[in-house]
Structure formats: structure tokens, C-alpha cells
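Data availability (excerpt). The following record was deposited with the supplementary files.
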Amino acid sequence: MPHDTSSEWSEAGGPSFPPLPIREGTPPPEDTPPPPMVDGPEAARGMSPLLGLSAPGDGYLAGPPPKITSWHRFARVFFGRKVVLVGMVVLVLLILMAIFAPLLAPYPPNKLWTSTYALAQPSLSHWLGTDQLGRDTLSRIIYGARVSLVIGLVVVFISAVIGGLLGLLAGYYRWANPPIMRIMDALMAFPMILLLMGIAALLGGGMRNVIIALSVGMTPLYVRVMCGMVLQQKENDYVLALRSTGAGHPRILFTHVLPNCIQPFIVLVTMQLGAVILRSE
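Predicted structure:
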């Protein structure tokens, strides 16, 4: 008859159960090295002396976990795509070509050859041929990269800064939204090409006037995008919590709202760089 342990009680008042049998394992061989010990600061922090664990059996290594920043995450995703790497290499080559144009161009960009070289076919002396005036096409492309990059970078910078600030004001302050957005709507009512042609006709030719015309035409897009993101962010709980603690509006706007809107805005800026270069031509 099996022994009923539920009827036995210990002196402390609880049930008494027989001890479970312990199965003896195979002893380690004699030549097995001892496990590594943890001394010094690790032992002072309560680390286990065996294998550097913070507690027996928890499975975590000693020391703090590796810190992964947003830059490491961005670099891992960015450099892990071959298409992005190819595009970056091409962009770097174009920038280097624009910087070292006097060293790479075989001829001056405005040098006129004789009429026999007008509209010449590609040859060893003119790799891409010549135009109707006899100017070397390859040299003009290399020097033209300078003008295109300067116009594109300056226009994108000016329109992004002005449009970003106006969008912040229009999205955060109610009194600033109607006048700013109505002006942007009036500018966007015209087709981009007609608007640029009208501004260029009023200002005249030249690189400076082209930059002004393109900056005015590109600003409404940045204003509307930034205004929409600020309207979404200012309704979040962290903005209400900051207001309840007495934080000022400039601090909330530029310290907390702007960092949460800047990443999509940067993506838009980089995408519009190529469009500005094409429109400048």
C-alpha cells in the first residue's frame, strides 16, 4: 500500500513530504579547465563569479548591453542596399567632376572652333562631338555640372529654410495659419513653369534671378508639408504635458516639435534636389 504523505504534518504546522531523489550526473573529466571567474567591479556589482553572469541561470552576459544609436541603425540600413550605394557613388563622382572641372575638361567651355568643327561627330579629339558653334560638348557638360549643382543646392537650402519656418509658424500658431497658407495657395494656383517664367521675366536673366525664381516657386511645397506635420504633432500628449508644466511656446516648437518633423522634411528636401536642377535648365 503506497505511503500517504498528505496525512503527515510537520512540527511547523504544514504538510511534510519526503525529499525527492537526486540523480547524480556524470562527473566532469579531470582535464576540464575551471570556469572563468569575475573579479573586481563585476563582483562588486553582484555579478555571478561563474561565466560573468549577473545572476545564476539568467543568461545575460556581464556588463551593459551594446548601445545602438540612430546613426548606427541608419548606416546599417543605408549601406545594406546596393541600389543606394550605386546612387551614392554616381553622386560623389558628379560632385568631384564639378569641383575639378578645370582639370578634367579637355577644352575651355566657350572656346569656338572653326566652322568645319560645327556639329562634328564624336571623335578622339572631341569625345561627345561639338555643338552648332563648334564648342566641345564634353567640356560644356563638365562645366555645366558646376552651375547645376550650385543652383540646386542654393535653391533647396533657401526654400527649405524659409518654407520650414513659415510652416512651423502656420501649423503651431492659429493666428499665423490663415495669412501664410492663403499666400501659399495663391502661389500654388499657378503652374510651376508659368510661375517661374513670370518671375524670371520680371527679374531678368542671370543665375541670381534664376535662384530667386526657383526659391519662390519651391517654397509653398515645403510650407504645406511642414504645416501638416506640425498640426499632427502639436495634438500629441507630450505637447499637452509640456504646456501643463509651463514650458514656453518657442521651447516646445523648436526643442520638441521640430525634431519630430525634421526627418520626413529632410527626405522631401533630398527628393526635390533633382527636380530643381531639371527646372533650372
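Summary of structural features: The radius of gyration is 35 Å.
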